[in-house]
Amino acid sequence: MTQTQPFPRKASTPAQPSTLVPWFRDVGIAVCGALAFQTAVLQPFTIPSASMEPGLVVGDYIVVSKFAYGWSQASLPFDPPLAARRLLGRLPARGDVVVFRRPSRPREIWIKRAIALPGDRVEIRQGEVIVNARPLPQTLLGPGIDVDMPLRPVQRVAEQQPGGRRYVIFEQGPDQPGDDRAPIVVPDGFVFVMGDHRDNSLDSRWPGNVGVGLLPLENIVGRADIVVASWHPGAAIYKPWTWFDLRSGRFLKRIR
């Protein structure tokens, strides 16, 4: 009788990991890296209003430096509680364009220019900004074009900070709301901000329930540094046909 031999078993091969696992891992690392970079270093924003014309217009895509002033609860995601107002905190320079959370509505992100710092005495008289008893020099440059409302007459005016920083603002003329502001000393922990479109900006000249009021330092997200690109009104990510509807001359433009 012939003894039957059992069929030899095939050697089991270890299960190979799915080829999707490395892909998901790499994507996860890339996303985490991007989020970390955006949280700690630079973050993009889009300009939603005309209050910073002529330097910034609706549709500008800007990059904000978060490390310029250190980090606060407002500049970090999910609003984590911090023991200090700012980690490695530094004051803005006079004339810096700052992005911040509106004090009365922290979910709203606003942008204005820092005009006066803690301890400064600021006053506005007939549209002239006076800091520590010295008017900021202004030079009339001639008519401008309000991109948001082209039929609204505006004048281009160059304004200069004591340190030499020079930028252009819009003025609509005398006797406008906000042209006069009683003297105030900016308290510790706050800055006084204004929009460059002086007669179309709700800023520190107005109480917090109307505009910004005095801006707490801990509400600052960062310093606006560069206009990466600018889209004409109506462009949106969900409208692919508008992706290339770009304004010329507004690529990698430094914010003054």
Automatic annotation (TrEMBL):
<dbReference type="GO" id="GO:0004252">
    <property type="term" value="F:serine-type endopeptidase activity"/>
</dbReference>
<dbReference type="GO" id="GO:0009003">
    <property type="term" value="F:signal peptidase activity"/>
</dbReference>
<dbReference type="InterPro" id="IPR019533">
    <property type="entry name" value="Peptidase_S26"/>
</dbReference>
<dbReference type="InterPro" id="IPR019758">
    <property type="entry name" value="Pept_S26A_signal_pept_1_CS"/>
</dbReference>
<dbReference type="GO" id="GO:0016020">
    <property type="term" value="C:membrane"/>
</dbReference>
<feature type="domain" description="Peptidase S26">
    <location>
        <begin position="23"/>
        <end position="228"/>
    </location>
</feature>
<dbReference type="InterPro" id="IPR036286">
    <property type="entry name" value="LexA/Signal_pep-like_sf"/>
</dbReference>
<dbReference type="Pfam" id="PF10502">
    <property type="entry name" value="Peptidase_S26"/>
</dbReference>
<protein>
    <recommendedName>
        <fullName>Signal peptidase I</fullName>
        <ecNumber>3.4.21.89</ecNumber>
    </recommendedName>
</protein>
<dbReference type="GO" id="GO:0006465">
    <property type="term" value="P:signal peptide processing"/>
</dbReference>
<feature type="active site">
    <location>
        <position position="112"/>
    </location>
</feature>
<comment type="similarity">
    <text>Belongs to the peptidase S26 family.</text>
</comment>
<feature type="active site">
    <location>
        <position position="51"/>
    </location>
</feature>
<keyword id="KW-0645">Protease</keyword>
<dbReference type="InterPro" id="IPR019757">
    <property type="entry name" value="Pept_S26A_signal_pept_1_Lys-AS"/>
</dbReference>
<dbReference type="InterPro" id="IPR000223">
    <property type="entry name" value="Pept_S26A_signal_pept_1"/>
</dbReference>
<keyword id="KW-0378">Hydrolase</keyword>
